[in-house]
Amino acid sequence: MAKTVGLGITGGIAVYKLAELVSLLKKENIDVIVMMTEAATKFVTPLTFKTLSGREVITSLWQDSQEWKVQHIGVAEELDLLVIAPATANFIAKMAHGLADDLLSTVVLANTAPVLVVPAMNSNMFINPVVQDNIKKLQSYGLSIMQPGTGQLACGTSGPGRLPSAQEILAEINQILFPQKDLLGKRLMVNAGTTCEDIDPVRFISNRGTGKMGYCIAQEAVSRGAEVILVSGRTHLEPPTGVEMVSVWGAEEMCAAMLKYQARCDIIIGAAAVGDFRIAQVAGQKLKKTEQSSQKMVLELIGTPDILKELGKNKPEHQIMVGFAAETENVLENARKKLESKKLDFIVANDVTMEGAGFATDTNIVTIINKDGQVSPLPKMSKEEVAGAILDEVLKLL
């Protein structure tokens, strides 16, 4: 049965990217009803979207319509999914507080289909606590929020706030409209984030991991029907809806948590940036510096548990284990060593020095190596797409 997507376009500079999205949706035989705020029409004319969608573009509550007796009600009843993109700070605020003062905001209130919100704005606006609170409120109402990309923005600043590519938005739309449930009945545990090792009550040592890759895996697994346990170290990310969240601090605590849940799991994926060392003797009080500029502090470090190796010792025959090898040199050679020593079914290797790969990026460039020696390099992808590729590989083993 054909699906219908309502595309609500608000007034941001990224409006031009939505023309490609409409074209991609039509190529997949998805019907598109485009609704534009008055501000959106200042960036791209409605005629562009009418030509691409093949349907009337709605811009006003007072617009005569040949298709619907009452526009906002008729449109809302026809939708299988409502997408708001680019979602400006202003329109997110209107949605969060139930305002209905134009065509698109009235459709939002009349709509009963799933809603996907794709924020795009200046970085300072996006991270503003008021905007973040409004986004959290929309999530609490059950709306899906697609995280913006990070990079150079049209306003000249750099940071979070970029509209994802048309292909990325299309993938999210397809996931909502045609959800894969190929992991239904399976329990998956993934660790994510970075571990932290205390120096004293104030300071700690850590690494550059942000947790995004592991959180993408958790989100993808949930959407594909799995029961997911997310063991997370330090991160700024919100956990995906539907996961069983276990928050930890250091490597030893993370290892203990994963050993506790291991027997319950069909699949284990180690995506966390686990520190290799901890402080031998943690100070009970804050360490003070002296007035001498030549003062030195020597910290004695000792090893932390190798979590996947510990899990490998107890691995039952049916369990699938996947690891990551974030390397800076001899990537494939080092990854193969980890694959064997940790008793993994396959390992995901990446060179974190490459542009667009590794920590604190929205993309990754990885190579999958299985225990039979097969090497499968993947092109540069969003971390959401990498998560999907990893779970596709898991399914082959299931």
Automatic annotation (TrEMBL):
* EC number of this enzyme: 4.1.1.36, 6.3.2.5
Q: How is the cofactor bound?
A: Binds 1 FMN per subunit.
UniProt GO MF annotations: FMN binding; metal ion binding; phosphopantothenate--cysteine ligase activity; phosphopantothenoylcysteine decarboxylase activity
Does Lipid metabolism appear among the keywords? no
* Catalytic machinery residues: C155 (proton donor)
Q: Matching SUPFAM superfamilies, A to Z?
A: CoaB-like, Homo-oligomeric flavin-containing Cys decarboxylases, HFCD
Segments forming domain Flavoprotein: 3-175
Required co-factors: Mg(2+); FMN
Alphabetically sorted, this entry's keywords are:
Decarboxylase, Flavoprotein, FMN, Ligase, Lyase, Magnesium, Metal-binding, Multifunctional enzyme
Q: Which InterPro entries does the entry link to? A: CoaB-like_sf, CoaBC, DNA/pantothenate-metab_flavo_C, Flavin_trans-like, Flavoprotein
**A Gene Ontology cellular-component term:** phosphopantothenoylcysteine decarboxylase complex
- Domain called DNA/pantothenate metabolism flavoprotein C-terminal: residue spans: 184-396
Q: Which reaction does it catalyse?
A: N-[(R)-4-phosphopantothenoyl]-L-cysteine + H(+) = (R)-4'-phosphopantetheine + CO2; (R)-4'-phosphopantothenate + L-cysteine + CTP = N-[(R)-4-phosphopantothenoyl]-L-cysteine + CMP + diphosphate + H(+)
One GO biological process this protein is involved in is: coenzyme A biosynthetic process
Region annotation Phosphopantothenoylcysteine decarboxylase: where it falls in the sequence: 1-187
Task: Write out the pathway annotation from the protein's UniProt entry.
Answer: Cofactor biosynthesis; coenzyme A biosynthesis; CoA from (R)-pantothenate: step 3/5; Cofactor biosynthesis; coenzyme A biosynthesis; CoA from (R)-pantothenate: step 2/5
Q: Where is this region: Phosphopantothenate--cysteine ligase?
A: 188-398
Alphabetized NCBIfam families for the sequence: coaBC_dfp
Provide the family line: In the N-terminal section; belongs to the HFCD (homo-oligomeric flavin containing Cys decarboxylase) superfamily. In the C-terminal section; belongs to the PPC synthetase family.
Role:
Catalyzes two sequential steps in the biosynthesis of coenzyme A. In the first step cysteine is conjugated to 4'-phosphopantothenate to form 4-phosphopantothenoylcysteine. In the second step the latter compound is decarboxylated to form 4'-phosphopantotheine.
User: What is the protein name given in its UniProt record?
Assistant: Coenzyme A biosynthesis bifunctional protein CoaBC
Which source organism? Syntrophomonas wolfei subsp. wolfei (strain DSM 2245B / Goettingen)
Gene name of this polypeptide? coaBC
